Amino acid sequence: FLVYYTNMKNQSEHTMDAKVFTIRHPLEEDVDILTHYMDELSREKTYIVPQGERTTKKETLEYIKKVRKNIRDKKEVCLLMFCEKELIGMANVSLRQKIYKHIGNSSITIKKSFRGKGLGMLLIEMLLSETLHLSGIKKIVLQVFGNNIPAINLYKKIGFRKYGHLPRAIKWRGKYIDEILMYKDMDNHYR
What we know:
By secondary structure, the chain is of the alpha+beta class. It is 27% helix and 37% strand. A nine-stranded mixed beta sheet has the order 1-2-3-4-5-6-7-9-8, with helices on both faces. The chain is globular and about 35 Å long. It starts with a strand and ends in a 6-residue tail after the last strand.
């Protein structure tokens, strides 16, 4: 696993098993591949909110435009991870508003065939590094399916702590699943 880092203003590239992985912010030209990626995850009915619903290109383009504006305004970080030209992961942190504007909501997804290879850790580390540039960020929070043990363990490994547990909060694949609430203090992260 060879890693070299370039200025995240544009992108960062990493290689693993002779493949090049690129992590960068979304562009409007990504509308087709991002729409396809989100639809693929939704069809999989993995640990995300969409469970089979489709996303339109118009919705994706509006999302990308909003994210790019928030990135410019230092209110959000959104990173796409590519293996060669294939979109394989996405992570974001977006600041809340008003009295909560020091807290960022986070999410991460990795394409099924790329899970369990350490790429989620790499993507989160890059996300946390970029998050330090957000205006006034002090904490990051996330919600995770209670039965998504690999994700919970990954978040713990990088310093997230459990602060809540909502029993039977998520109806997933015909069963009710607990939701785990986690947070990470950013005051001491890479500063």
